[in-house]
Design goal:
The longest helix is centred in the N-terminal third of the chain and has 33 residues. Helix 2 runs antiparallel to helix 3. This protein has 4 domains: 85 residues, conserved putative lor/sdh protein from methanococcus maripaludis s2 fold; 88 residues, Elongation Factor Tu (Ef-tu), domain 3 (Beta Barrel); 69 residues, RNA polymerase II/Efflux pump adaptor protein, barrel-sandwich hybrid domain (OB fold (Dihydrolipoamide Acetyltransferase, E2P)); 68 residues, Helix hairpin bin (Helix Hairpins, Orthogonal Bundle), CATH 1.10.287.470. 29% of the residues lie in helices and 36% in strands. By secondary structure, the chain is of the alpha+beta class. The strands form 5 sheets. It has a 6-stranded antiparallel barrel. It is elongated and about 170 Å long. It contains 5 helices and 22 strands.
Length: 376
């Protein structure tokens, strides 16, 4: 190898060595990571919970027949508005042959008894007028006559009810007429003309002919967790949001908090109810899914920091922050926390107004940048 080539290689090697040394020197000469800091501030903090549930009419009733039979006519449709006393449907009675025959037998027996006591009454009346029998004997026969007459009338009415479902002359009070018991909206008609229905009595709930509800009075019914129910009180104002009506809030007043909870999926849930104030221009349907925003606690102008500045001891899980003591020098300071809304948290002990707190994670810096953009 020639002397010139050796010198050239030495020069190139020396140049590379200088470049590498300069790279490491520049890297090592760079300052350590500089952390931003923030100071505590005053803020209003509100803690809320959300209860999921539904909105339903406060007054909702099911109309059931007083006698079994066949639906002969339905006079309304779902969604129609009705007033109390309006005729909803008619029932056609299909009498039981055995019951009908038994009723006929009772009518015949009652008529025979009536005719017999009438004959005795007419005879005793003539004898009493001639002075042959005493007044007491005549009154006894008259009483028997009146009782037989009443029994005949009752047996005839029973026969008419079994045969037709009502007594002749009963008018709108007939058992075959289904009448609206409240003013409102027809929510559901689960039967159709020609369907067989069963009467409502002590032993049977009966077939529902129609469901009527007053849609002007709505209530929210939902559930809250046991950890939050202790902070709820009846009479508190809450906000209802409906999934079907976006961008609109309905004020409501809490009227009921269940005294007993039910375990669901391993958590104890308590039922709550609230009266919802519906705007006249808003049409809310029964059964809409809804969320209730409930304010649990509120504090105005409290000593606070951003919750993202908190750190937690891995062993004790106690919260702390890092406070600046010098130029980019920090020390751990334990803090005692108050209420939090998930963004800001109240500081009860551990910090002073002029403390500078280390922004230790990237999430904190991003949150700060977002807030700065919002301010602009």
């Amino acid at each position: 190898m020639s002397k010139g080539l050796k010198i050239a290689l030495a020069v190139v090697g020396l140049g590379l060595l200088v470049v590498v040394m300069k790279f490491f020197a520049d890297k090592n000469s760079k300052a350590a990571v500089e952390y931003k800091t923030e100071q505590p501030f005053k803020a209003s903090i509100v803690t809320k919970t959300v209860a999921t549930g539904k909105v339903n009419p406060e007054e909702e009733i099911e109309l059931k027949p007083q006698i079994s039979g066949i639906v002969s006519e339905i006079l309304v449709e779902e969604g129609d508005k009705v007033k109390k006393g309006d005729l909803i449907a008619r029932i056609r009675v299909v009498p039981n042959a055995q019951n009908l025959a038994s009723a006929q037998g009772r009518v015949k027996a009652a008529r025979l008894s009536f005719e017999n006591t009438k004959t005795v009454y007419d005879r005793n009346k003539v004898l009493f007028e001639k002075g042959v029998i005493s007044k007491q004997d005549f009154e006894t026969s008259e009483l028997s006559y009146q009782q037989a007459k009443q029994n005949l009338s009752q047996s005839q009415n029973d026969y008419q009810i079994i045969k037709k479902g009502s007594v002749v002359g009963s008018g709108s009070a007939a058992n075959t007429n289904i009448i609206a018991q409240i003013s409102g909206t027809i929510l559901e008609i689960p039967v159709r003309e020609g369907n067989q229905v069963i009467e409502s009595n002590t032993f049977n709930a009966g077939t529902t002919i129609a469901t009527v509800a007053d849609m002007s009075k709505m209530i929210f019914e939902g559930k809250v967790d046991e950890a939050e129910v202790g902070k709820l009180k009846e009479g508190r104002e809450i906000i209802i949001k409906l999934g079907a009506i976006e961008g609109k809030e309905f004020p409501a007043k809490l009227t009921f908090v269940a005294p007993k909870g039910k375990e669901e999926s391993g958590a104890v849930q308590f039922t709550i109810k609230a009266d919802v104030r519906i705007d006249k221009d808003a049409y809310v349907r029964a059964g809409y899914s809804a969320n209730a925003e409930i304010e649990l606690e509120k504090k105005d102008s409290v000593f606070s920091i951003k919750e993202s500045l908190l750190q937690f001891n891995r062993i004790t899980e106690e919260p702390f922050v890092e406070v600046e003591t010098g130029d980019q020098k920090f020390k751990k300071v334990d803090v005692k926390l108050g209420i939090s809304d998930g963004i800001n948290v109240e500081i009860l002990e551990g910090l002073k107004d002029d403390d500078k707190i280390k922004v230790w994670n990237k999430a904190s810096e991003e949150n700060n940048d977002d807030e700065d953009e919002d301010d602009e």
